[in-house]
Amino acid sequence: MLWSELSSQPNNSLRLAVIGDPIAHSKSPVMHNAALAALGIVGEYIPLHVSRQDLGQAISRMKELGFRGINVTIPHKVDVMAYVDRLDESAAMIGAVNTIVNENGYLTGYNTDGIGYVRSLKDETHVSLRGKSIMVLGAGGAARGIVHALAQEEPKTIVIANRTEDKAVQLAEEWNSMGNIYGIAIDKSTSFLTGMDIVINTTSIGMHPHMDQSAIDPECIPTGIIVSDLIYNPLTTELLKRSHERGCTIHGGLGMFVNQGAYALEYWTGMPAPIDKMRQAVLQSLQN
Ligand code: ATR
User: Fold this and answer.
1) Atom from ligand 1 closest to the CA of residue 137
2) Of 10, 134, 188, 254, which sees the most CB atoms within 10 A?
3) How far is the CA of 277 from the centre of ligand 1 (A)?
4) The domain containing residue 67 runs over which residues?
């Protein structure tokens, strides 16, 4: 649906949306509508196509129409910061917003990607991150959210390995007050991998349709550690498949997607999110 086609609805209905360009592929509506149904909340979560030049107008219109919550996806996560009244501290540090809460016309921007990821990693692998050595592959927007959330867990070290070394070094320097964070070139990652407890891929390498690729050679990953990938299409990337064969515990990106949505829903409704129902809805939709 186009944002310009929005009209008013009865007051007692919870209005939620995800805005992006493109937006048709988004699994958020199917996930959140399943959650609303499970919680018995009268409301609707809709996908809205919003182009870059319309972003400000679309946000004002949704505010006017009483939307309680908005998820923000590519390409608006950075630009949308200009249109909220307040940024939550983590969204300000990460420099991106994926969730907006509308409190009677006052908009607060949050970033639930990083905390959603860490919640999923801990829930699904039962790992405690405190004192662990972690390598993050990639230094883009997704990596920023992840590194920020990981740093809150007091790991021993975070090594950011990126194709463009400068970006990794810059990100590490920006946040070195939060812990031992280093930036390196990804092609020098092999020697650092020995001694890592967890490796996390935040790049798009291995995503559908280039499913045979992986950001680093899986043969270089120490056996038995935790290997995690933010990608959820495919559910098990080449990196994860090969790591599993090496006796590693693997963790895919579906849980991050579900948990970033769960945090957003909890901000909007104040109720615990029905995570299992949300996960089931996304899995079913991916299989169709
Ligand atoms: P996102 O917001 O999804 O993180 P991004 O900001 O464009 O997207 O960042 C993509 C990340 O994947 C970057 O770290 C990028 O490396 P560069 O900083 O060197 O560009 C990494 N990446 C993407 N494609 C890659 C490839 N083919 N080989 C190595 N790294 C790649």
Assistant:
1) 14
2) 134
3) 32
4) 3-111+256-287
